[in-house]
Amino acid sequence: MMDLRNIILEKKDHLPKQTGKLVNRLYNKIKLDSYYPDNKNVIKLKEFSTVEINNFLLECLAEYDKTERLFCEHHDIVGLRGVWAVLAFSKEENVLKYFDELIDKYIHGKPFYLHFLFELFTRVSGSDSNGCCCSLRV
Fold first, then answer.
1. CA-CA 20 to 30 A from 25: which of 4, 36, 110, 115?
2. Rounded to two decimals, what is the model's pTM?
3. Closest to 86 measured CA to CA, from 113, 108, 60, 63
4. How far apart, in whole angstroms, are the C-alpha atoms of residue 56 and residue 54?
C-alpha cells in the first residue's frame, strides 16, 4: 500500500528544476501527519497551483487510485487534503473533470473519504476572490 505523499516524493525528482522546487516545498508542508489546510493555511497553498504542478498532482492521484484501499483508515487523508487544497484553486478543465468524476463516483458509491473534499470546499468557499474553483456541484 502506497501513500499519496510517498508517490509525490518518488516522482518529484523527475520534474523540471523550478517545478521540482515548488513541489518539494509543497511536500515539506504535507509530509507531517499533523498538517491541516485550515482557513489560515489553505490560502498559503495557492502558490503551488500552477498548470505544471496541477498536472503532476493529477498524475500522482491517478497512481494513488490504482492502489488497493480496503478501509477508510488506509487512505492518506493528510496527503489528499493537501493535494485537493492545491487543486481547488485551479480552473483548468482537467482538474475540474477530476473533481466531477470523483464526486460522481463516490456519491453513487461509498463516500468513505469524500467528506474531506466537501469540508475543504466549504472552508475555501469564501475564497472565490482568491481564485478558488469552489463552484463545483457540491
1. 115
2. 0.76
3. 60
4. 5
Return d(Cα 13, Cα 107) in angstroms, integer.
35
* pLDDT tens digits, 76-110: 888 999 999 999 999 999 999 999 888 877 666 55
Cell readout for 49 is: 497551483
CA 32 to chain CA centroid, nearest Å: 15
Amino acid at 124: V
> How many C-beta atoms lie closer than 10 Å to residue 112's C-beta?
14
Ranges of H-type helices in the chain? 4-11, 17-30, 39-44, 51-65, 77-87, 93-108, 114-124
Is residue 76 helix, strand or coil?
coil
Residues 3, 35, 66, CA angle at the centre, nearest 5°? Answer: 20
For the chain, give the percent of residues with pLDDT over 70.
71
Side chain identity at residue 54, one-letter code: N
Closest by CA to 29, choosing from 85, 75, 95, is: 85
- CA nearest to 2, candidates 53, 58, 56, 65: 65
